[in-house]
Amino acid sequence: TGFASPVFATSAPGSPGTLYVVQQGGAIRPLDTATGVVGPTLLDLSAVGGTDFLAGGERGLLGLAFHPNYANNGRFYVHYTYENDGGTN
């Protein structure tokens, strides 16, 4: 519960007990694996590019990778489609 069209889940280096759930519609939200509590949105790309962000089928927010030093620098990377022709970023 609490997720719409989840496509991927991963943990961040230095964040044991938390899964970050990627939702095809553009949002990433943390899930505490011990309590089942879904946390506030980490990122929401649904408004990126205005109406150019597409979700559904094989389009939308598709992937997430955390920088190996995420605990110190907060960097992460996402893969998403954004154009009518299925272009990706």
Task: Quickly describe the structure.
The chain has one helix at 70-73, and strands spanning 6-10, 18-23, 27-32, 43-44, 61-66, 76-80.
Can you give a write-up of this model?
The chain has 89 residues and is mainly beta. Helix content is 4%, strand content 34%. The strands form two sheets. It has a four-stranded antiparallel sheet, with no helix packed on it. A hairpin with a 7-residue loop joins strand 1 and strand 2.
Strand content: 25-35%
The averaged pLDDT comes out at 86
Which sequence of SSEs, written as H and E, runs from N to C? Answer: EEEEEHE
Number of strands: 6
Backbone CA Rg: 13 Å
Q: Which strand order spans the largest sheet, edge to edge or round the barrel?
A: 1-2-3-4
Which parts are unreliable, with pLDDT below 50 for 5 consecutive residues or more? none
The residue fraction in helices comes out at: under 10%
Main beta sheet, described? 4 strands, antiparallel
Number of helices: 1
**Shape estimate:** globular
* Terminus-to-terminus distance: 28 Å
Which class do the helix and strand fractions yield? mainly beta
Write the layout of secondary structure elements.
Elements (H helix, E strand, L loop, with lengths): L5 E5 L7 E6 L3 E6 L10 E2 L16 E6 L3 H4 L2 E5 L9
Question: Could you list some keywords that capture this structure?
Answer:
mainly beta, single chain, 6 strands, four-stranded antiparallel beta sheet, 89 residues, globular, two-stranded antiparallel sheet
